Amino acid sequence: MELVLRKLNENDEQSFLDGAKEWEDESLSWYSFIWKPGMRFQEMLSSLQKETVGIDLLPGRVPHTMLYGFLDGKIVGRVSVRHELNEYLRKRGGHIGYAVAKKFRNKGYATEMVRQAMGYCKQIGISSIMITCADGNIPSWKIIERFNGKLEDRIWDEEDKEMIRRYWITFSSYRSNANL
To answer: What phi, psi does 126 have (nearest 5°)?
Structure first.
């Protein structure tokens, strides 16, 4: 079965809750920015929809779409597609942020999720995509470079005390990469 990247729907509650268990030893924010244990699933879906269209955004947030990677009914990871960049996202975060649960890593799912997320970016009119990652996150920057991500620079992130790589990908550059 192939990985499908899509928004959550009302039928995904159990898959979502099962997926959340995969993040118990990591920060839950890698899985969901808004869900907390005990939150009603329908409430979360409503909040996600509002965030997609830019309604009731928290300070510092931009409209974004949360997409989850499904493989045979299981959620392997998620992608946040930010529809625009603010000052913070220009420094760290970019248009696409992604995470894969530990037990699903090193199997190509992140690469496939980024590929599908780039298609979503194109659908909503983003033609030049910024993606950032920690300088020490070699698997992440290798994925970005597979899509012909061009390194703009490396900057110091004072908040997390680490170097950040900032890349740009254009659709014309990544389509020409035969390794995808």
So the answer is: -90, 115
Distance from the first to the final alpha carbon of the chain? 19
Structural domain 4-175, CATH architecture: 3-Layer(aba) Sandwich (3.40)
The pLDDT assigned to 178 comes to: 38
Question: What residues of the chain score a pLDDT lower than 70?
Answer: 1, 173-180
- 8 A C-beta contact, residue 127 and residue 103: no
The full set of domain ranges for the chain reads: 4-175
Written as six digits, the tokens of 99 are 């995470």
pTM value is 0.92
151 Cβ neighbours under 8 A, 6+ residues apart: 165, 166, 167
From the list 106, 52, 109, the residue with the least C-alpha distance to 78 is 109
